[in-house]
Amino acid sequence: MMSSDNMKKVVLVTGANSGIGLALCKRLLSVDDQIHLCLACRNMQRAETARAALLCSHPGADIALLKVDVGSLKSVLEAAKELKQRYRRLDYLYLNAGIMPNPRIDFNAFINGLFSRKAIHMFATGEGLLTQEDQVTEDGLQNVFATNVFGHFILLRELEPFLCQSEKESLVIWSSSSNARRSAFSLTDYQHTQGKESYSSSKYATDLLSVALNNHYNKQGLYSSVVCPGLVMTHLTYGILPPFFWTLILPIMLLVWLFKQKPESLDPLAKYYSCTSGLGSNYVKPVKMDLDEEAAEAFYQKLLDLETKYRCWQNVK
Ligand SMILES: NC(=O)C1=CN([C@@H]2O[C@H](COP(=O)(O)OP(=O)(O)OC[C@H]3O[C@@H](n4cnc5c(N)ncnc54)[C@H](OP(=O)(O)O)[C@@H]3O)[C@@H](O)[C@H]2O)C=CC1
Ligand SMILES: CC(C)=CCC[C@@H](C)[C@H]1CC[C@H]2C3=C(CC[C@]12C)[C@@]1(C)CCC(=O)C[C@@H]1CC3
Fold first, then answer.
1. For a 10 Å CB count at each end of the chain, is N or C smaller?
2. What is the pTM of this model?
3. Which protein residues are within 6 Å of ligand 2, measured from CB?
4. Is the ipTM of this complex over 0.95?
5. Of the candidates 49, 7, 6, 43, which has an alpha carbon nearest to the alpha carbon of residue 25?
6. How far apart are CA 172 and CA 163, in angstroms?
7. What is the structure's pLDDT at 1?
8. SUPFAM superfamilies, per this entry (predicted)?
């Protein structure tokens, strides 16, 4: 018979020590403080600080730490092994850790975009505005791809037996982005070795991967979904512009949005209302992803090939 402790849901969040990951953990505990929450972080000191902050608002919560650098395959394999020893189940896997290294704003694109019909879209998604300088990891992979996509994919593959259990369903949730863009991604260069939009490419890759995962795993009780947090002030965005700059431009961004609103674009037969209600909160609306299932499957097969290659390499080492 299962003890009540074994019946508690196990939730793992990568990149849980700051920004969206930490806010998510706080929210999860406020919804259900009976979960086993595991903060998967690369820096244990920052993880400890995050744990202490969560315990301040939720004393008595069951919060564990797991060391993992999702950009390193060795670290991911070790973390997965550790997890399998600690828990008998995994209910929610939040694949949230992510990087946008050395971001630069393309000011020419910004000025051109500002006076074009795409201004609102540009402010909402950052499309065409940002470039990044990527690097190669110890495993020989592009860092952004390794961190935002492949490390998480390997983690998920390692935890497959826990996620695919006949008696219960499990959910994998990816932190994607409005910056995910089809044109930044290429199946022939899925690690984005050539371009300067590795972030955009990696987020499009997570969208594709999520679709493929559903096709492959739904029958086994594993469901994948992507969330798109919009624009959130975190270390990631403070890497693009310093905090004081954001304080200055946010009201301007709001004004641009107001002036760009066309009254004729409003549907007279629609009510524009907040999704928040006292009967349960739903702040989000679904947006169809710009992708097709064949591309998702082709990308999934490429990831499986890469996985095979790296597993052989790990065995040889
Ligand atoms: N902020 C925004 O506007 C948006 C963010 N997102 C996505 O949300 C996710 C969270 O980002 P956000 O909270 O904004 O940014 P933060 O930089 O605040 O958080 C990123 C988290 O990921 C961790 N992380 C980064 N690299 C690794 C690694 N190799 N191994 C383990 N952990 C790692 C960081 O750890 P450490 O502290 O050690 O660096 C940190 O905890 C990302 O995937 C991002 O792409 C999506 C849309 C918008
Ligand atoms: C005055 C001035 C220089 C304005 C530039 C504003 C841009 C820096 C932002 C406009 C939209 C923003 C945005 C992001 C980063 C910063 C902007 C490009 C993200 C790409 C950050 C990470 C994400 O995942 C999505 C964000 C979408 C919007």
1. N
2. 0.93
3. 105, 110, 123, 125-126, 129-130, 177-179, 231, 237, 240-241, 249
4. yes
5. 49
6. 9
7. 46
8. NAD(P)-binding Rossmann-fold domains (SSF51735)
